[in-house]
Amino acid sequence: MPFDAQLSPVAAGIRTSCQLCPAHGNCLVNGLPANELSRWSSALLAHVPLTQAGKSLFATGEPANAVFVVRAGCIKTYTVDEDGNERVRGFHLPGDVIGLDSFGAAHYPAGAVAVVPSQVCRVSKGQLQSLMTDNSGLTQHLFERASRELRLALALSGDYTAEQRMAAFLLHMLERMAPAAPCASAGDVRSISFTPAAGRSADSLIKLPMTRRDIANYLRLATETVCRVLTRFEEKGWLKSTDKTLRLNAPVALWALAEPVGISQPRLSLSRAA
Amino acid sequence: MPFDAQLSPVAAGIRTSCQLCPAHGNCLVNGLPANELSRWSSALLAHVPLTQAGKSLFATGEPANAVFVVRAGCIKTYTVDEDGNERVRGFHLPGDVIGLDSFGAAHYPAGAVAVVPSQVCRVSKGQLQSLMTDNSGLTQHLFERASRELRLALALSGDYTAEQRMAAFLLHMLERMAPAAPCASAGDVRSISFTPAAGRSADSLIKLPMTRRDIANYLRLATETVCRVLTRFEEKGWLKSTDKTLRLNAPVALWALAEPVGISQPRLSLSRAA
DNA sequence: CGGTTCCTTGAGAGAACTCAACGTCGGTGG
DNA sequence: CCACCGACGTTGAGTTCTCTCAAGGAACCG
């Protein structure tokens, strides 16, 4: 399987160096010792393509026999109840792990589909399990990811107003997209890897890859409410919304609003303790 | 600190056999190979007492340097935002791990207090980390616990009616308390360890250790709403509520209500194919 | 260009909240 | 022993936030 140094074309299962991956900075293997990283790489089925929005990675209830890491794009996880109501559980950006909620479960508790054209890397449960027995660094990183996701889920599960939730969501997306690059689809991978940390700069631009409907569903709001809240924010001069691209003018005001949610602080100073 | 002979004296830090622990059936070490269990036991500070309701185990923002397993009683975790609003994040029953959401975090994201007199076992983060490097069974159990908690948090975070949430909560409590025994406080430990699986039997009795206020807060409802929903359930003949003790007469009806929440099924049968 | 799908705005409805009052229980102290 | 107090639980009435229903406009795709 050929592989171009720069980045190039995509074939599932390619053996690649994680070092060159556009998502490396956010990936759970970032910071692992070289030996663990190389073992990880060789257990990996890399560059699995989800060529277009709506492509399914796996369905709810399917046997849960792999875990995925987003390489590019955006994947949403969701459930559907007996009445056919969809419920968005989360959005996964480059570097994020998908399937952390399926450990010890026979089946995926939620399905996963691409929000925009995306790429993921795949590790089977079996391989992951054996990796975990003798790669303590990897194990710890995985654990921290799961723990972080749990913190997020618990924080978001609170009872907040539409405005609080929206503000928290926007800031959270901003934080997550900033270090890697604006969330581009896999088609734009070329640009991703060479874009330096964008978004963290002066004016905060977010390109939201998902629809209002998905945002609303994720935040437990009606689509219309999301629109109205965005309009209200815009009237206050806090942001400028152009289709899916948002420009945050007054992040401070948003922070203040989102504070009770507790997921996005201006600068979370976590000085370590014993 | 007086304590009954059956299960010997309680002094924090006692070296004890996990086999005799009343919570053993639900504990994360249940099913581990003997060698891992014994290493776990010796890393453990067992029987840490929280003598009365309201006693704090740790506070929000405190350096997160240990993980706990509930031995008896009930512990609630909670956060307090800047406006002083309390937010209950979860109730932890015997066998449950507290602190899974603090991995990779310097500080506890939530505080923990006893709901009724309780006992916990303590393992320091450092010890746990070294245990995890060479006890793959333990590691896996921990991972599965974190994953399960994540699934629960995601399921509960949905947008449901007061009745759906209440039904899901009651059934979930019933399921969790049944195998171990009705949630008794540490003072009743005597009875716990020798009571065979209660509650699973014909008529389902639950003793809810926490106040209506805590339940409401946990479910993102007003205290009054919880009362009203319980009253409605009672009017329908689905349960009989006597103070903190509930008798579920029509679990089927409750199951039907709680179905969309997706956390408590009569018997989860998701046979699905790839 | 039609035909979707998505986004946006308006008007009315409903579920849950807030405010308020009252009953109950358990502990405390006179 | 009983009166008192505070916390908890329950019930009622009015308010509010968000949802639902409805419709028009914009963007995307074949």
Structural descriptors:
homodimer, 274 residues, alpha+beta, six-stranded antiparallel sheet, three-stranded antiparallel sheet, 22% strand, disordered N terminus, disordered C terminus, DNA-binding
Q: Care to describe what's here?
A:
Two copies of one chain form a homodimer. Chain A is α+β, with helices and mostly antiparallel strands and about 270 residues long. Helices cover about 35% and strands about 20% of the residues of chain A. Chain A has eight helices and nine strands. Chain A has helices at about 35-45, 125-135, 135-155, 160-175, 190-195, 210-220, 225-235, 250-260, and strands spanning about 45-50, 55-60, 65-80, 85-90, 95-100, 110-125, 205, 240, 245-250. In chain A, strands 1, 2, 3, 4, 5 and 6 form a six-stranded antiparallel beta sheet that branches. In chain A, strands 7-9-8 form a three-stranded antiparallel beta sheet. In chain A, strand 8 (about 240) and strand 9 form a beta hairpin. In chain A, helix 4 (about 160-175) crosses helix 8. Chain A starts with about 35 loop residues before the first helix and ends in a 16-residue tail after the last helix. In chain A, about 45% of the residues are buried. The model of chain A is unreliable at about 1-15, about 190-200 and about 265-274 (pLDDT under 50). The interface between A and B is large, with 53 and 52 residues. Chain B binds a DNA duplex (30 and 30 nucleotides) through helix 7.
